[in-house]
Write a structure and sequence with these properties.
Blueprint: H1 5-17, H2 20-28, H3 33-58, H4 72-95, H5 100-106, H6 109-120, H7 128-144, E1 146-147, E2 151-152, H8 156-176, H9 183-204, H10 212-249, H11 252-266, H12 275-282
Antiparallel strand pairs: 1-2
Helix pairs in contact: 1-10, 1-11, 2-10, 2-11, 3-4, 3-9, 3-10, 4-8, 4-9, 5-11, 6-7, 6-8, 6-10, 8-10, 9-10, 10-12
């Protein structure tokens, strides 16, 4: 079963992250995109910090992995900058002008960028089956972007999502460098740092915090879809490397597309304005 640990954690990370585009979409109208990105990461950091505190209080003698130290801080700083600050802002800005299902499927490109950087920049081994799989992903993304009568085209909003995927691809490879450290501690540090930076910048430029229910929903979604997903992703990186983890993680957008389709089918235009208020109750938040 040990050889299945990496793939299973990668698939779990994908399932958790796949929740974010369709469930964050209703919240975009309630707050600035950069502020929402910051709140998602802040929820991730605060939630994982609570888990770490509980682990220390109730299992003080539980063996844990070493924390990030020495030159590894440079890798983590780069991962935070690209994956925790730049990428989520690009995604939320693009998502505001793109259908949630399309955005979810375009996020497949994160795995492609992860693998390309792993192979050509970080010198990981190449597997033919993974290459074929990613070729099919790129083909699918082209189909998504095909406009009848105009051929292949990407809107500016879609290009922002593609740019976010590129940033996350670099982030994944940089995080691979610190994957041997404690996953909860690494993910919590990343969440707190990215959250504080994005929220501070958004508030400094005139953004306002959303109402209580939407604020709670954003923090809760961040904990599950960013925080716990990143913990699982780091464990997968530890076992199978960046390229293979990216391949398994490419299943995430399909879950997101299914959730988005469910929302579209059950939400009329008249009801869409109240979706952000109803979502916290539907997701179990109070």
């Amino acid at each position: 079963m040990t050889h299945l640990r990496g793939p299973l954690f990668a698939l779990l990370a994908a399932a958790l992250f796949g929740l974010s585009p369709p469930l964050a979409k209703p919240l975009i109208g309630q707050s600035n995109p950069q502020l929402l990105a910051g709140l998602l990461y802040l929820g991730s950091g605060l939630g994982l910090g609570t888990v770490l505190l509980g682990r220390r209080l109730f299992s003080p003698h539980r063996p844990t992995r070493a924390h990030v130290a020495g030159r590894d801080w440079l890798w983590l700083a780069g991962a935070i900058a690209f994956g925790g600050v730049v990428a989520p802002v690009l995604l939320m800005t693009g998502l505001a002008r793109t259908a949630a299902a399309t955005a979810s499927l375009l996020l497949n490109l994160e795995g492609v960028f992860t693998a390309l950087l792993a192979w050509f920049l970080f010198r990981e081994g190449v597997n033919r089956r993974i290459v074929l799989g990613f070729a099919l992903i790129v083909l699918g993304s082209i189909v998504l972007s095909w406009t009848t009568g105009a051929g292949f085209s990407l809107s500016p909003a879609a290009l922002l999502i593609v740019a976010a995927c590129a940033c996350w691809g670099l982030d994944n490879n940089l995080t691979r460098k610190v994957a041997q450290a404690d996953a909860f501690s690494t993910a919590a540090l990343k969440g707190i740092a990215a959250g504080v930076v994005n929220v501070s910048l958004a508030l400094a430029t005139g953004a306002h915090l959303p109402a209580g229910p939407s604020l709670g929903a954003a923090l809760a979604l961040g904990f599950v879809s960013y925080g716990l997903s990143l913990v699982c992703f780091i464990v997968a990186l530890r076992h199978v490397g960046a390229a293979r983890t990216g391949a398994y993680f490419s299943t995430a957008p399909f879950l997101g597309a299914l959730i988005a389709a469910h929302f579209s089918a059950n939400t009329s235009p008249r009801k869409s304005g109240s979706l952000a208020r109803s979502w916290p109750r539907a997701s179990g938040c109070t």
